[in-house]
Specification:
Helix content is 25%, strand content 30%. The chain is of the alpha/beta class. The strands form five sheets. Strands 1, 2, 5, 6, 7, 8 and 19 form a seven-stranded mixed sheet that branches. A five-stranded parallel sheet has the order 10-17-11-12-13. It has a three-stranded antiparallel sheet with strand order 14-15-16, with no helix packed on it. A hairpin with a 5-residue loop joins β6 and β7. The structure holds NADP nicotinamide-adenine-dinucleotide phosphate. The site of NADP nicotinamide-adenine-dinucleotide phosphate has 22 residues, from α6. NADP nicotinamide-adenine-dinucleotide phosphate binds next to α6.
């Protein structure tokens, strides 16, 4: 069987593309990875989605999109795509030992949160050191936590953690935050939150069965300090999930896919990209949904022109 379109990725970009293509009767096959879309799943309250004035939680929004796509006729497959062959049509996609063939392909694999890569971090990743407050914040009820980073994600994580933690310390390496004013205002006045600027994380300090805190360097004095904490939430940005393409499509130096300006077209005909796999600039839910819609329209036109 040759599919008309395979969409790799079941986050907001891929699901939006699948809704449009399903509605056009093209029966897209969406391959969803085991980890839910990194960004939207960790977005607590989406207050800015046009037409949803009451707001919606990120996971609920994603679930609604999934059900909408399914109702319209999109098909789903769970698993991780390990490789693709884009050298000839039909293109092939390898997943779970199966080779799937398709006339067109939409890459919507998103991005993955980065870790610090400092000593002591690896051992505690996933629980005491996390990139997802909604996933792990609950375990820090009444405890001290650190959020590392100065962007919107760090502010959002810190705000969420005030629900559980007794103290939330934001540790940022520069003297000014990168986060937008709106995100800063939401959290910086909170009585549980304090801000430590000009601190570069050096090492996660262990104690028996846990962590004692974070060793940082004070960039103004050059001295090393220990910031005590029971948990550390790392919010220092993301990296695009494009390695599985094995260099068959051009990317920038950080791995973000390059598309023809103003379109979702890659340099290979019939292969499109949307969402954070190709967006290093905005990283917003709405830009991801918009680019998913654009990819579906480009793909539909491509298939119609054949
Ligand atoms: P970001 O804006 O790139 O911020 C990353 C932060 O981590 C920066 O402050 C950076 O420091 C710091 N950092 C990077 N590497 C570091 C390292 N090795 N050690 C210590 N600190 C490090 O990433 P983001 O906050 O994840 O946001 C990404 C995009 O998503 C943005 O466009 C943002 O607006 C968007 N976003 C939207 C929402 C929403 O709409 N709900 C929520 C979250 C994020 P420097 O400032 O020194 O570079």
């Amino acid at each position: 069987m040759v599919h008309k379109c395979i969409i790799i990725g079941g986050g907001v970009a891929g699901l939006t593309a699948s809704i449009y293509l399903a509605r056009a009767g093209l029966e897209p096959l969406v391959i969803k990875g085991p980890n839910p879309s990194s960004h939207v799943m960790t977005t607590i309250d989406v207050e800015y989605f046009p037409g949803v004035p009451q707001g919606i939680e990120g996971p609920a929004l994603l679930d609604n999109m999934f059900r909408q796509a399914e109702l319209l006729g999109a098909r789903f497959r769970l698993g991780t795509v390990t490789s693709v062959d884009l050298s000839k049509r039909p293109y092939t996609v390898v997943q779970g030992g199966d080779i799937l063939r398709t006339e067109s392909l939409i890459i919507a694999t998103g991005s993955t949160a980065k870790y610090l890569g400092i000593p002591g971090e690896e051992q505690e990743r996933g629980l005491r050191i996390s990139t997802c407050a909604p996933c792990n914040g609950f375990f820090f009820r009444g405890k001290k936590v650190i959020v590392v980073g100065g962007g919107d994600s760090a502010m959002e994580e810190a705000e969420y953690l005030t629900r559980y933690a007794s103290e939330v310390t934001i540790v940022h390496r520069r003297g000014v935050l990168r986060a937008s004013q709106t995100f800063q205002e939401k959290v910086l006045h909170h009585p549980k939150v304090s801000l430590l600027l000009n601190r570069t994380p050096l090492e996660v300090l262990p104690v028996e069965r846990g962590i004692a805190g974070l060793k940082v360097s004070n960039n103004e004095t050059g001295e090393e300090e220990t910031v005590p904490a029971d948990g550390i939430f790392v919010a220092i940005g993301k990296a695009p999930n494009t390695q599985f393409l094995g260099g068959q499509l051009p990317t920038d130096s950080r791995g973000y896919l390059l598309v023809k300006p103003g379109t979702s077209e890659t340099e290979i005909a019939g292969v499109f990209a949307c969402g954070e796999a190709q967006d290093s600039r905005y990283g917003h839910l709405l830009t991801a949904t918009g680019s998913g819609c654009a990819a579906a329209i480009d793909c539909e036109r491509y298939l119609a022109s054949e």
